[in-house]
Amino acid sequence: MPSFRTLDDLGDIAGKRVLVREDLNVPMRDGAVSDDTRLRAAVPTVAELADKGAIVLVLAHFGRPKVPAPEFSTALVTRPFSEVLGRPVRYIDWEGDAEAVATLQPGDVALLENTRFFGGEEKNDPAVVERFARLGDLYVNDAFSAAHRAHASTEGLAHALPAYAGRAMERELKALKAALGAPERPVAAVVGGAKVSTKLDVLRNLVGRVDHLIIGGGMANTFLAARGIAIGKSLAERDLAGTAEEILYAADKAGCTVHLPYDVVVAKEFTPHPPSLRTCNVHEVAADEMILDIGPAAVEALADVLKTCRTLVWNGPLGAFETPPFDAATVALARTAAALTQEGSLISVAGGGDTVAALNQAGVADDFTFVSTAGGAFLEWMEGKELPGVKALYQ
Ligand code: ADP
Ligand code: MG
Known about the structure:
Elements: E1 17-21, E2 28-29, E3 32-33, H1 37-51, E4 55-59, H2 75-85, E5 90-92, H3 97-102, E6 109-112, H4 126-133, E7 138-141, H5 152-160, E8 163-165, H6 167-181, E9 187-191, H7 200-207, E10 212-215, H8 217-226, H9 241-254, E11 257-259, E12 263-267, E13 278-281, E14 290-294, H10 296-307, E15 311-315, H11 328-343, E16 347-351, H12 353-362, E17 370-372, H13 376-382, H14 388-391
Parallel strand pairs: 1-4, 1-7, 4-6, 5-6, 7-8, 9-10, 9-15, 10-11, 15-16, 16-17
Antiparallel strand pairs: 2-3, 12-13, 12-14
């Protein structure tokens, strides 16, 4: 079984410059970090390295800049990260960075400017790999959530410097192996979120691997429409009806039970607590209504399904959870999963940007066995794919 080196394998690193790839790509609202989960996930590795006397140079991307622009500068997350870390963090621009790094002392932490300000970062350009590698002696990849990309800072550097997995990466790899590698059965998967099209390969992979596939969110609408159910103005991808049917057929053949909601929460306008709010059977959605959450009867039935399961993998909210009360189903089912986990009857692993936000909103993230801070990488893992940033650590 190939493995990877962790921080336990580092020798004396006092005074060594360690390039640490973290994912600090946090959501912002009105200039403030609206969910600091990723900042907190970076703390153990950065603090441990600093405590061991390393000069810690954090590499991170922030947003999707086409060209360098102030709104994509990691300067915006430097202070929030420093507050979460509980020690000073120096921001270093890409101009004069080598000189700035040379002034750092053992135990200092610096956050370098957005890696994506180099066009070659996302192309894994050897010149950019070299540009980063010159700054450090060692490389630690702690950003599982960016490991599905073969970028200079997520993949290339692992070949240019001695490479190690950080603590968050290590925990993530262990937890996901327990959930999807050789899970205890029965296994349930909850797949929700806005669109089927972003999660087709997840659904295809899961139907062959889980016993219960619970579909919620906007993507449930696509499946309902494919079955000829009138879904009014609901968000759905009607052109994917054939694909949805194929998935249902594959599930049937594999012995995977697919659970679609039979009651739903609808409204005519998508606003908080809309006056037109009502709960109805899926067959009773009017032409001018939208399905914005799955209904309470469906949630109760799904809770019963989870009670029979030993393992749960969850990606995607069951409704438009950002707008109350369309978080009700997600919150209720998440609380059931959390309670079963705490009783010791369920291993629960969840991931996805919005999923993590929804679990935090439900106040249960800490009660799950493991919550992945990864979005796309978690999905690719659920698709059964090998992640380049992870593969590069196995050497
Ligand atoms: P994740 O980030 O966890 O992978 P997604 O990005 O796939 O999840 O989906 C999350 C989004 O799906 C949320 O913004 C939520 O509002 C939206 N969503 C869920 N259900 C519905 C629905 N019925 N109608 C419209 N949007 C929905
Ligand atoms: Mg999302």
